[in-house]
Amino acid sequence: MGEPDLAHRLAVARKDAPADAVLKGGRVLSVFTGELLDADVAIAGEHVAGIGSYEGERTHDVGGLVLVPGFIDGHMHVESTKLTPGEFARAVLPQGTTTVVVDPHEIGNVLGIEGIRMLLRLSEATPLDVYAMASSCVPASPLETGGHHLGPEDIAQLIATEPRVLGLAELMNFPAVVAGDPESLAKIHAAGDRHVDGHAPGLTGPGLNAYLAAGVRSDHECTTYGEALEKRRLGMWVMIREGSAARNLEALLPLVLEFGPENCMLVTDDREPHDLLADGHLNNALRRAVELGCPPERALVMATLHPARYHRLHHHGAVAPGYVADVVALPDLASFRPVAVWKRGRLVFDQGGLVEFEDPLVPNWMLDTMRVRPMGPADFRVPASGRPIRVIEVREGSIVTGASVEQPRVQDGFAMPDPSRDLAKIAVVERHRATGRVGIGFVRGFRMEKGALGSTVAHDAHNLMLVGANDDDMAVAAERLRETRGGQVVVRDGRVLAELPLPLGGLVSLEARGQVAERSLGLERAAAECGVRLRAPFMALSFLALSVIPELKVTDLGLVDGVEFALVPLEA
Predict the structure, then answer these.
(1) What CATH number does residue 226 fall under?
(2) Rounded to two decimals, what is the model's pTM?
(3) Does 255 fall in a domain?
(4) What total number of domains does the chain contain?
(5) What burial class does residue 560 get, using C-beta atoms within 10 Å of its C-beta: 0-12 exposed, 13-18 middle, 19+ buried?
(6) Tell me: the pLDDT tens digits for 519-559?
């Protein structure tokens, strides 16, 4: 911001000069008091100059509308939407989201620090403000094989050279932090005076104290009121997540209703593209919060001012003098369906549509990440020993799993899936280093009767992941993903029912958002044809490889005990 810009803003505020634009006739929400003010919004350049009675060179009639700050998602992974940054911006700007803070560790695990840099470059052409946190979990743990490793020196370099990198992203390996692991502490030191995001499901007591003492300031993994309350009491920011698979708002909202919204914010973390287009982004979480009894002014502060304050974005999060002019015009404070959106003083969405912008080309080196040999049914066979096996228990609406012990169905000397008991086979194939390594387990919760699902979206190392009712269809799914350079697929009786190619790192489509959403929805429909009744099955599948989440997971190295943080054999 140059001195002439500031001088012009002050002149507009004093009414010595006309505003560049005035939003006239609406009611402005003060996120500082919760009041609705009958006032105009005067815009000078990219900022709000004044709230009151103003005239300007352009006037936008917002009579009958409520003006609120642009929504800020304080923790999300843009890659999880399977959209390029440009298509993601086109999806969320009409929903009122004007700023996001991403953790690009998905692309970092596949393409390293250069992948992170390029993801930021690809977002520069959009009107959306995309900030980032330096990824701390590349890989998430030593219990999986990723494509790259980002150490403390990489984190320091990102923070020093990328102006939009604000701090250190979620420290997922929380047991290592609590234990004082040297590399984990070195990553925290590399962040300097920047803030540090957390990721600590179920952490309590002395371990939680140690985690906070290390400098961690937030957590988005709370699933119960008691867990969130303990963390908030100790000064932690509670990120209340409402994504596609993990939906914690209903369980955690009582914390806000009882103690107020302080130190709380709404985030999406991971959201499927069809959910994004059909139900919305943060506006979906706001709508749900109000439906559950939260006063709208309290819900809004958790999606505007609070994430801005936490991330030290001091000029974001309010419609007030000196703040960036990110303004959303709403017909009411219940549906949260924007009529118009201004981004940095510029009208980017109204009933006439969305402002146009061009996307940069995705470089070819981001499109060649599959290092998987041809695979057949024999690669997924498990010899039966007669002993019981460990089984991953999927929980609807949560990425935390349970664990049980079962006798497998045995056929021709091999342990087999058993749809009658909701037992499917699950496998993770290493795809970055051409090792051919396969980790295999069994899972309950998909209610799969036939066929197989395959995906190269498998948090966080993003190896090739499969779940199936038989080995033959699992092998066909693996082969199809090898051919499409990554993606997601549903196979039944040797035939592809639906697929979504994701050539950018095996994570992101190059198609338009509507096509991606339709393909994504088609995958869920095809999964249902295989008997799957789990909500957001591909999102749920992707988290079954996340080795830092309790209780039982699977990676290319085998089964992972997420409580003891160790590999365990399939046989119990």
Answers:
(1) 3.20.20.140
(2) 0.94
(3) yes
(4) 2
(5) buried
(6) 999 999 999 999 999 989 999 999 999 998 899 999 999 99
